[in-house]
Predict the 3D structure of the following.
Amino acid sequence: MGGVWMISGLNYQLQFMINFSHYIVFIAFWIVIGIGTSVFLLRKEAPYGRFSSRNWGPMISNRVGWLFMEAVVMIAFLCWIPLRHYDWKTPASIMISLFFIHYLHRSFIYPLMIRTKNKKMPVIIMLSAMLFNTVNGSLLGIWFADFAHYPNNWYYSPWFVAGVLLFFGGMLVNWHADYTLIRLRKNGESGYQIPRSGLFKLISSPNLFAEIIEWGGFALLTWSLPALAFFIWTCANLIPRAVANHRWYKKEFSDYPPERKILLPYLW
Ligand SMILES: NC(=O)c1ccc[n+]([C@@H]2O[C@H](COP(=O)([O-])OP(=O)(O)OC[C@H]3O[C@@H](n4cnc5c(N)ncnc54)[C@H](OP(=O)(O)O)[C@@H]3O)[C@@H](O)[C@H]2O)c1
């Protein structure tokens, strides 16, 4: 009888190890795909926002596109979490809350705030972002459901403290910069102006810079591979986007401030 328990315990352990090793290998592939995507995006900007184009097939309203493509990450995440049996008194639950604060805003507030005057994005962009968010939400959900075991003194670790500061600092700057851009238009307008306040005096895309900082903070405070993969993907999406935005501003506005950098104040 004892032998049966030993074997089933071993099976369980083996299954855990195999699953965990599959999970790690998948994330490694996922990171490689992210890096490949950034190489592609450096050559061809993603066709949404100022680069939106009808050449990419059917189009959908900007607002609806943002809502669907971002909300899906929360569903994917929650699919893996045993909500009723989860221990909500651990550092992991704080980490989950941070993730949800960001995505509740991005999915349900940001799309209502944009001044987008019937602008559209290609459906393919919405679908590819939904695919990305499904994988990303699942990888993080699996982490918090199965593998995240943080001691209670994790709250006092330098990783957690520095990560939380970076996360909230990044989030606030990201919101501020996004809403500064949004307020450049009056309701019903859809054109573009040169933003001239705050961090925009130093770099062309402070919202993207701050989003990178935010998810860097999240990777630090969770000290986890799926959050690191998300951070790498965020860089892979947003660094090429910032390069394209900077190039676009210089092309569109002959009076664009020449001292303004792309993404890193005073440096680049
Ligand atoms: N984590 C990730 O991988 C990821 C990926 C993509 C985006 N995001 C985040 O999603 C948010 C939006 O991204 P985005 O690329 O759409 O940002 P964006 O191009 O800076 O646009 C933000 C908003 O401001 C408007 N806008 C931008 N520049 C303007 C200007 N010069 N004059 C007037 N209005 C202007 C845009 O309108 P239009 O839409 O009409 O251009 C849009 O409504 C950002 O916070 C970004 O960090 C995150």
